[in-house]
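Hypothesis: this fold can be encoded by more than one sequence.
Test: take the structure tokens below, design a sequence, compare later.
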């Protein structure tokens, strides 16, 4: 299976009306300091069932100049991934399940001075 889990999650989050438009990205070159951003990065994973299922660990980092808005959006992203994504077909993948790996934690960005909350999920998926 050759599906990019970041592409799947970015597309899913971009379809959510309560996630700020344009904020989910899979490449930090698209981020400008001071703009709200939900950055997704593949951080590992493994093949679950031969060529039929993968588990990808994906970190999500939320950047915002307002700390309250940042933490609220981080927990909204977490909720969307854990509660709304399982069972959906997105970008060629059928998402079977999503598990929490790490709850959003505060990691302020030293260089941009933006607030950042980051968490991690494990996404179990197969080809749709």
């Amino acid at each position: 299976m050759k599906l990019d889990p970041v592409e799947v999650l970015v597309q899913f989050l971009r379809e959510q009306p309560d996630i700020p438009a344009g904020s989910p990205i899979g490449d930090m070159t698209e981020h400008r300091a001071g703009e709200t951003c939900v950055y997704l990065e593949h951080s590992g994973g493994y093949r679950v069932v031969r060529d039929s299922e993968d588990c990808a660990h994906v970190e999500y980092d939320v950047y915002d100049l307002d700390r309250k808005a940042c933490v609220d959006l981080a927990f909204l992203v977490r909720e969307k991934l854990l509660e709304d994504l399982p069972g959906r077909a997105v970008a060629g993948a059928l998402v079977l399940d999503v598990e929490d790996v790490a709850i959003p934690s505060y990691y302020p960005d030293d260089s941009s001075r933006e607030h950042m909350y980051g968490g991690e999920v494990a996404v179990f998926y197969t080809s749709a």
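The beta strands are 24-25, 37-49, 53-64, 89-90, 93-106, 115-127. The helical segments are 5-14, 67-84.
Hypothesis status: open.
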